[in-house]
Design a protein that fits this description.
The complex is a heterodimer of chains A (about 80) and B (about 290). Chain A has about 80 residues and is mainly beta. Chain A contains no helices and eight strands. Chain B has about 290 residues and is of the alpha/beta class. Chain B has a domain of about 170 residues: 3-Layer(aba) Sandwich (Pyruvate Kinase, Chain: A, domain 1), CATH 3.40.1380.10. Chain B has six helices and six strands, in the order ααβαβαβαβββα. Chain B has a five-stranded mixed sheet, with helices on both faces. Chain B: Keywords: ATP synthesis, Cell inner membrane, Cell membrane, CF(1), Hydrogen ion transport, Ion transport, Membrane, Transport.
Amino acid sequence: MALHFELVTPEKLVRSGEVYQVVVPGTEGDFGVLAGHAPFMATVRDGELAVYADERSQPDMIRIEGGFAEVNEKGLTVLAEKAE
Amino acid sequence: MASLKALKGRIDSVKSTQKITKAMQMVAAAKLKRAQNAAEAGRPYAERLEKVVASLASKVTISSTTPKLLSGTGKDQVHLFVVATSDKGLAGAFNANIARLARRRADALIKQGKTVKFYCIGKKGRAVLNRLYPGQIVKSVEPGDLGKLSFADAHAWAEDLVERFDAGEFDVAHLFYSHFQSVLVQDPTQQQIIPVKVPEDATAPQGTAAIEYEPDEEGILADLLPRNVAVQIFRAMRENAASEQGSKMTAMDNATRNAGDLIKRLNIEYNRKRQAAITTELVEIISGAEAL
């Protein structure tokens, strides 16, 4: 089962697609999101988002600044002011 | 009566004007495409943020600790109008429409005894408002080329606004801009940005599972609300950029067509005059020959 992941900035939709796992730098600590994660909302600190395309692959690092993450039944959405 | 030479000169000058308006139209068309893409690219973010803020706001009960950006100051005496226009004209009624809407709303509020202040983005809006409401402009900024605005600019204005709000300079802020519907239709729009307006039908997100928050709802709100102001302004600027180019394109298209009509009319006049001159000359020659 794949996790639907979207990374959006005010300027554009940076990424949208199915991934295995995303590790988000939350204000109160990093957290990993897999498919089927419980509904969750958190603010994000400036840092790097690690996107794992599948179980074994190396993570894709995306630098983000300011924003928040929302997990709902549809997947994970990260709203950042700046990305990469 | 204009001489043939003067007519010829006029035709040439209208022709060169037409060339210019034609070129401006094509430039606007190219820029419109870009501005339109940018406006559309920015929509998902703004929409999602709006949704999240609305769902959060519907959950938080208003108390003294609620962020002021959400609950408001409890008054609505002083209104701040953030009027976003452009720095340059030659875009049809684009600037005039936004200014007119702002003026109408301002007059209505003033009639009710409220105070209205203005925060101008763009030279064109400032010119009108300064004449009608002298001394009511608290600040005006010049955005330059609307298409090249970055989120950082909008963010800086939003910060300034929030600071003024915290300092108690105003109670309610409205944003005026032109919503881009299509090349032909741009709606001047008013939107309340401070305090955040929660749509009436805002309900908690569907699904029975409780959402976990980190930090708590109010912590997230305190972080999101100022950002929301920036995002709304940024979106408005993007919409404005697209609207300005759309409006400019239409205006320049009309100008080009008008110039074409004018050229046609002048050409007819020119040809008639030339014909008349030739006829007169012929009559002179013939009558001269007969007299001999």
